[in-house]
Every structure is written in structure tokens, then in C-alpha cells.
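Hello Y.,

Per our agreement to keep a running log of every chain we model this quarter, I'm adding this entry. I've kept the format consistent with earlier entries: sequence first, then predicted structure.
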Amino acid sequence: MTELDGLRQYAVAQEAEVLAVTEALKLQDALPDVAALSLAGILAKLEVIVGADRDIGDPTDFPWPHIASVVRDLKAITGDLPLYQSDRSTTRADVARHLKQATQLVEPLEVEKATTHVRQAATQFAEASIFPKPAEKPAEFSKSSRRRRAR
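Predicted structure for the entry above:
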């Protein structure tokens, strides 16, 4: 694998991660519109809320200790939620969908970068060219062109 292939795969993976996180955030945003039908449902919603905000500055600040206390109380009443195991085929399908979308987003950028690179290389080549610029014609060319015009 070349360095360019590795960079491309990294860019696609980064974009796929952004798409997956965006999808998860949309589900979190929809959570308030979902009605819990049991104490276990309320507990599940609270665990999503607590789990979603793992990057909080200080977990001892209000309201986090209070919410954690409510979660503990609900677990004492209802018991722990059953462990959820996602269907691997669903997970694989989601990953494949995110990678496909990411590839579709990254490929135009690669074409644009390649085009820019070719333009820059051509410009650098032209600037470094050994051919004289028209205003810098050697004197012997100027003399021969005068002779042709005189004939």
C-alpha cells in the first residue's frame, strides 16, 4: 500500500466516523419525542442521556450526581437492563453504508487535489523552464528576424 492509499483510507475512515456520530446524535435528539412505557424504558432513556455526555467537564457538578442517583434508584426497583447485543449483520451494514457515503464524499476532494497538484506542477515546470521568455530573446534571434523582414 502506498502512502497515498493510506491517506485516502484514513480520510474515508474519518468521514465515515463523522457520518456515524451524526447519525447517533440524530437518534439522541429524537429521544425526547419517544415516550417511555415502563420504568425500564425510563431507565433506558436516562442511561442514554448519561452515556451520551461522557465528555462533561466535571461529573460531580449538578445535575450529574443527581441523575446518577436516579439511575441507581431505578435499577434497584426494576433491576439492571438486559444487555443488548446488536445483530452483527446490522452493524456491518451500517459500517458499509457509512464507508460508501464517506468514499463518495472523499473522492471528489481527491480529484480536486490531483487537479490542483497537476496545475501546480505544470506552473513550477513552466517557471523553471530553460526556454527564454519572449522579451528575453537572445540578440542573434533578433538580428535574424530583422533580416527576414528586410527581404
